[in-house]
Amino acid sequence: MSVELEKVIRTIFEEHLSESVSVQEEDVCSGVTRLLNKRRQIKDVDNEMKIQRQEFEIKRESLRQRREQMKIKEENLKDSLLKFDKFLKENDAKRARGVKKAGSERAVLRERERELEQLHTHIAALQVKKEKLQVRVERFRVYSDFLHTVLKTATKFEDVGQLVARFETLMSTREQLLRRQSEMERQRENDSLELRRYISEQNSILLQYNNTLSQLQTELDNVLSHTLAQESSWNHIQAAAVKETHLLSQIKVVTRNLYHMTGGVTGGDQGVNVDDTVEQLEQIRLFIEDRAEIFTYLRSDRSSSSSRLSDRE
User: Fold this and answer.
1) What is the pLDDT of residue 297?
2) pLDDT at residue 101 in the model
3) Which residues of the chain have pLDDT under 50?
């Protein structure tokens, strides 16, 4: 603010100074006159500056007051804006609740109208059903008259209700008997089906057993045939074994006799076992070899003696 004041004072002083210079150019006065004019001008300038300063102070005070008023108004405006914003929010919330409530009420109203239409439709259907029932009542009235006529002739029943109850009991019993008969028929069919299935399974099992028995009989025949062949072969083997055993016995007897003839001894510590035919044959072989050597030696000796005799002659 002081800088602006100096600018204003400088502007005013320059204006007065320019005016004084122009006056001096027009009127050539003496130095005293110029000095007086200068002093008068300076005094006027001071007065004007005082007036300007006072006006400036007044304006500055007015501006300060206006600024304070503006601050107060701004604060009030902020409060008003906050209150107005709060009011708008509350109003929006109330409006939303009102809209929601109105929507709910409209939905309830539509539901009530739909229920009312359904009730009207149901009432109309009931009315139609009532008319049909009335027609049936009129059509079945003859049966009611018949029941009353029967009730007059029957002594077991006191009213039509007992007669109808008896009839319903008989019908219920009849239905139960029919259901039981149907169940028994189904059970009989199931049992028959189960029996046929069991017979079929048993026939299949019996057929398998017959096939198995036939196979076993064939195998038994083959085994018997093979057994007969084996028995025949065994008999032949036994006959051959008997012959060979008899021959072996004869060989053993002959071998033992030959062994005894060669001077062999059987039994005891020095003798050969009676049943050890191999050892006996070995001893016989040794005996024969010894005798063959002796015979060969004697024959060669006889030949040499004959040759010596012939030489002497």
Assistant:
1) 79
2) 81
3) 1-3, 21-26, 28
Look-up of token digits 């008068």: 40
pTM: 0.27
Start-to-end CA span in the chain (Å): 206
As given in the structure block, the two tokens for residue 260 are 């005894």
Residues with Cβ within 8 Å of 8's Cβ and at least 6 positions away in sequence, in order, are 52, 56
Q: Where do we find the tokens 């018949």?
A: 146
Name the CA radius of gyration of the chain, rounded: 82
Residue 164 contacts residue 150 (beta carbons within 8 Å): no
Between the alpha carbon of residue 298 and those of residues 39, 115, 288, 289, the distances in Å are 213, 160, 15, 14
Place of tokens 């006072």: 54
